[in-house]
Amino acid sequence: MLKIHYFASVREQLAKGSESLALPSGVATVAELVDYLVNSDATNAPLADARQVLVAVNQSVSGRDHPLQGDEEVAFFPPVTGG
């Protein structure tokens, strides 16, 4: 079971903080998960913009090519700037 978290402006755009999801058939990477989420609910469209939404798998920032096994924590969040 995937535990998916949405943080900061991503959370505000999607109007949800988290959800659980069994790894869908045919989904093997973060990119495929994003495609699945966007295709299953149009309100998830902001997730598709890799420049505006970063991903962490099991609390480590990951690329969209990161493989998924089905029992991970996946987090989506905006790029962070600091001073």
CATH class membership: Alpha Beta
Q: Catalogue the unreliable spans.
A: none
Distance between the termini: 37 Å
**Shape-level CATH architecture:** Roll
CATH topology type: Ubiquitin-like (UB roll)
Can you give a write-up of this model?
The structure is a single chain. The protein contains two helices and five strands, in the order βαβαβββ. It has 83 residues and is of the alpha+beta class. It has one domain: Beta-grasp domain (Ubiquitin-like (UB roll)), CATH 3.10.20.30. A five-stranded mixed beta sheet has the order 2-1-5-3-4. Strand 3 and strand 4 form a beta hairpin. The longest helix is centred in the middle third of the chain and has 11 residues.
What is the structure about, briefly put?
The protein is an alpha+beta fold. It has 2 helices and 5 strands, in the order E-H-E-H-E-E-E. The longest helix is centred in the middle third of the chain and has 11 residues, at 30-40.
Keywords:
single chain; 83 residues; alpha+beta; Ubiquitin-like (UB roll); five-stranded mixed β-sheet; 2 helices; 22% helix; 25% strand
Fold topology:
Blueprint: E1 2-6, H1 8-14, E2 18-21, H2 30-40, E3 54-57, E4 60-62, E5 73-77
Parallel strand pairs: 1-5
Antiparallel strand pairs: 1-2, 3-4, 3-5
